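User: Just a sanity check before I run the rest of the batch. Below are the C-alpha cells for the first item. I only need the designed sequence back.
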C-alpha cells in the first residue's frame, strides 16, 4: 500500500490554512499533519515531524520566507518545500530556488494545480507556476540559446546530465550521492563539469535550463 503524503502548512492566515487543509484532507493520498502561523514555529515543528511536503507562504511574521526555506532545508533535509504565495515575481522565485525550495506556486492557482504541485514535489519533482516558468526560461530563448543549449547538452556525459537534472529538482549533493550510489565529491565534480560546459552559475540557472529543455514538465 502506498504511503500517504504528509503535508505541513505554514501560513499566517487562518482562513487560508483552513481552506488548504480541507482540500488536502479530501485527497485519497495525503494528509495535513500540522500547521504553523510563523516561520520560527514552522522550523521547530518540521525539525520534529519531518513532513514529506511543506507548503510555505513567503510573507509571515518574524522571519522572511527565504530564511525560513533555507533553515527548513537544514533541519528537515528530506522534506520538500512548495512555496505558495501572492508574489508573482521571478525575483522571488529565484530567491526561493536558491534557498532550496522544490516548488513555487502563485495563490491565483486552481485547487487542481495546488494538488498536482504537492504530488509533483512529493515524488521528487520541481514544480514552478507555469507563467513564471515561461518567464524564467524566456531569457534563454530570447538569446536564441535553445539550439546552442541542445548542442551543449550533447557534450554532457550521462552522469553529468543525471546530476544536473537531480540538482534542478532540488536535491542536495548528499541526496544525489545516495540516489546514485556514488561519493559526494564525485557528485560535486559532475555538477561542476556540467555547469562549466553549459555556462551555468547557480541553481536558478540550472532550473532555467531544465525548464527550457523540458526536463521538469509532467513530473
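Assistant: Here's the designed sequence for the first item:
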Amino acid at each position: 500500500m502506498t504511503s500517504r503524503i504528509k503535508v505541513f502548512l505554514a501560513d499566517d492566515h487562518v482562513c487560508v490554512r483552513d481552506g488548504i487543509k480541507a482540500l488536502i484532507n479530501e485527497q485519497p493520498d495525503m494528509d495535513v499533519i500540522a500547521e504553523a502561523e510563523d516561520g520560527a514555529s514552522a522550523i521547530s515543528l518540521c525539525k520534529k515531524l519531518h513532513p514529506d511536503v511543506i507548503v510555505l507562504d513567503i510573507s509571515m511574521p518574524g522571519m522572511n520566507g527565504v530564511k525560513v526555506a533555507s533553515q527548513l532545508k537544514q533541519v528537515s533535509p528530506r522534506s520538500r518545500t512548495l512555496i505558495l504565495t501572492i508574489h508573482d515575481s521571478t525575483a522571488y522565485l529565484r530567491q526561493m530556488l536558491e534557498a532550496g525550495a522544490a516548488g513555487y506556486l502563485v495563490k491565483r492557482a486552481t485547487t487542481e494545480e495546488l494538488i498536482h504541485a504537492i504530488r509533483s514535489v512529493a515524488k521528487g519533482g520541481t514544480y514552478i507556476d507555469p507563467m513564471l516558468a515561461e518567464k524564467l526560461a524566456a531569457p534563454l530563448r530570447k538569446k536564441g540559446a535553445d539550439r546552442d543549449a541542445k548542442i551543449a547538452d550533447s557534450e554532457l556525459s550521462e552522469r553529468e546530465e543525471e546530476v544536473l537534472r537531480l540538482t534542478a529538482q532540488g536535491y542536495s549533493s548528499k541526496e544525489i550521492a545516495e540516489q546514485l550510489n556514488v561519493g559526494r565529491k564525485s557528485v560535486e565534480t559532475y555538477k561542476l563539469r556540467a555547469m562549466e560546459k553549459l555556462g551555468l552559475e547557480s541553481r536558478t540557472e540550472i532550473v532555467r535550463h531544465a525548464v527550457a529543455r523540458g526536463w521538469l514538465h509532467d513530473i
